[in-house]
């Protein structure tokens, strides 16, 4: 899988994923299952630098790639 996310995009996804997983862990948000799934997807895509939806839509925010 070739990276298709830039540095800022990845950082935002990691931070968002950690925030959502933190909210899920302390049970302070409704829709816990959706929060868990979105948080995990954001964290994983941020850590790997690859987003399948970006690939389908032809988006590439990675300037080095």
Describe the protein in words.
- By secondary structure, the protein is mostly helical.
- It has one domain (7-57).
- 65% of the residues lie in helices and 0% in strands.
- It contains three helices and no strands.
- The protein has helices at residues 7-25, 32-48, 52-57.
- α1 runs antiparallel to α2.
- It is elongated and about 40 Å long.
**Sequence of secondary-structure elements:** HHH
Strand element count: 0
Structural domains: how many: 1
Helicity level: 55-70%
Termini separation = 12 Å
Taking all residues together, what is the mean pLDDT? Answer: 94
Shape label = elongated
Low-confidence parts: none
Structural class: mainly alpha
Counting DSSP H or I runs of 4 or more residues, the number of helices is 3
Our Rg estimate from Cα atoms comes to: 13 Å
Strand content: under 5%
Largest sheet: none
Features:
65 residues, mainly alpha, elongated
In short:
The protein has helices at 7-25, 32-48, 52-57. The chain is mainly alpha-helical.
């Amino acid at each position: 899988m070739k990276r298709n996310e830039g540095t800022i995009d990845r950082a935002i996804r990691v931070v968002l994923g950690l925030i959502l997983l933190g909210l899920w862990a302390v049970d302070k948000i409704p829709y816990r299952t959706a929060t868990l799934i979105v948080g995990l997807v954001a964290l994983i895509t941020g850590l790997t630098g690859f987003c399948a939806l970006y690939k389908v839509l032809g988006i590439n925010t990675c300037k080095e790639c």
